[in-house]
Amino acid sequence: MHGGGSGEFSAVVFNLVAVWVEKRRRAAEKELGSDQEAILRRVRKGIHKDLRLDYLVTGSWSLKASQEAANLLEPLGHSFVNVATDARQDGKFGTIPPEHDWRLSPTSAFVYYCGKFALGNTKVELQNRFIFHADPFRQ
Asked: How far apart are CA 6 and CA 37, in angstroms?
């Protein structure tokens, strides 16, 4: 794939947002039947009301990823990117705030966390709290 790591930022957004939207489309179709106009209205309303992409900004790569997501979704006219935590202190990345201080969205399409090869002064204490389902369309 052309674009390297930066290109993957876009791929994550496009693929996981598509899964999030399709999940809501299927739920609307189950409830509304075959009325495509009503389904489309329901999904559009849900996108603007509930779609959020949570980013744990722990370093320069996750910061770049959050900025790319904001740029990609800007044409939709709404802020979908939620920086749930930011490890910058005085302009430099430091200790990641404890999990109880994160502002995760209840309807997030995903939580983006970018681990680092060399942590330097950044300390990461994650407790495997993220659950990923094998079936992304599971309710």
From this structure: 36
Highest average pLDDT, of 8-22, 83-97, 116-130, comes from 8-22
Decide if 96 is inside a domain: yes
Nearest alpha-carbon partner for 114 in 86, 78, 134, 133: 86
Tell me the Ramachandran region of residue 95: left when phi exceeds 0, alpha when psi lies from -120 to 50, beta otherwise. beta
Q: What is the pLDDT of residue 127?
A: 43
**DSSP 8-class letter at 138:** -
What is the number of alpha carbons within 13 Å of residue 104 lying toward its C-beta? 17
**Whether pLDDT at 129 is above 70:** no
Domain that holds residue 71: 4-113
Tokens 């202190």 locate to 89
pTM over 0.85: no
Q: What is the pLDDT of residue 1?
A: 54
Q: How many domains does the chain have?
A: 1
Position 93, amino acid: F
